[in-house]
Write a structure and sequence with these properties.
single chain; about 190 residues; alpha/beta; Rossmann fold; four-stranded parallel beta sheet; 7 helices
């Protein structure tokens, strides 16, 4: 007799981050990837990241749900913090915004648990991500899987999987503000 696994909705930012997190979770949960990232800009960057995730879904066979690209709502949420830089209130509001939309979808569709791939990045604050997830768990009544997926060489393993599958790897978090900051820093350091 096969025991049914809990249905986990995994907020996913991109295929490189998803790959290792999926490997960690797939034996314990029935994982569905939820690509909800209205922060990613410009639109062609968003499409590039989504295309890689779709290709990976077809290659290994996981369920992928694509959320709406409501960039206006996201922009209003982070606007007061837009020039604060990486790992600031801007990012924390962005994490919370995207996780809340994930929880709402999980409630609407009957998922048992929510998680995110965000904590695999060495540039992301796992404490803040988990804090948002735990707050939303209380608000929506669905458990949040608290994790720091970069630990135990998680990020390194995601890079290895990216090479193995030929994933496009972006050089900035996703929002236009992080893109501008990255470009400004590279100009400054190349002079």
């Amino acid at each position: 007799m096969q025991i049914s696994r809990k249905k986990l909705l995994l907020h996913t930012c991109c295929a490189p981050c998803f790959s290792h997190v999926y490997e960690v979770l797939k034996d314990s949960y029935n994982v569905t990837s939820y690509f909800y990232n209205p922060n990613i800009s410009p639109r062609d960057e968003y499409e590039k990241r989504l295309s890689e995730l779709k290709r990976y879904a077809e290659e290994i066979g996981f369920q992928l749900i694509v959320g709406s690209y409501d960039i206006r709502e996201w922009t209003q949420r982070v606007k007061p913090f837009r020039f604060m830089g990486e790992r600031s209130e801007r990012c924390w509001n962005c994490y919370h915004f995207r996780l809340e939309k994930t929880f709402i979808h999980a409630v609407d569709e009957g998922y048992d648990i929510v998680a995110t791939s965000l904590s695999i990045s060495p540039h992301k604050d796992a404490y803040r991500i988990n804090k948002s997830g735990n707050e939303l768990e209380k608000k929506y009544g669905i458990p949040f899987l608290t994790a720091d997926f970069k630990k135990k060489d998680g990020f390194k393993k995601s890079v290895e999987l990216s090479k193995k599958h030929g994933f496009y790897r972006q050089n900035y978090c996703g929002c236009i503000y992080s893109k501008m900051e990255r470009e400004t820093a590279s100009v400054y350091y190349t002079k």
